[in-house]
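Let us practice reading a record.
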Amino acid sequence: MLKKITKWTFLKGYLLVYLTCCLIFTIIKWKTLSYEESWGVVYMVGLIGLGLFGLVIDFILTLIIKNKKILNGIGILIAIGFSIMLIMEFK
C-alpha cells in the first residue's frame, strides 16, 4: 500500500496561499498585465514558477527531515527569507 509522503508544513501552507494570491491577482488584473508587450504576464509566470520551486524544496525537505518541529522551523526561516526577497523586489 502506498504511504502518504506529503505532510502539511508551514512552508507548504505559506506557498499555497502565495500561489493562490498570484493566480487570483493574475485573473483579476489580466487586462493590465497583458497590455502591449505582456511583460506583466511574464513577470507573474516567473513569480508563480518561484512558488512552485518553493513547493519542490518543501517536498525535498519533507523527505529528508523526519522531525516535524525542525522541518517547520526550517520552513519558517525559508518563508521569512522568501517574504524579504519579495519585499525587496517590489521596492
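A brief commentary: The chain has a mean pLDDT of 87.
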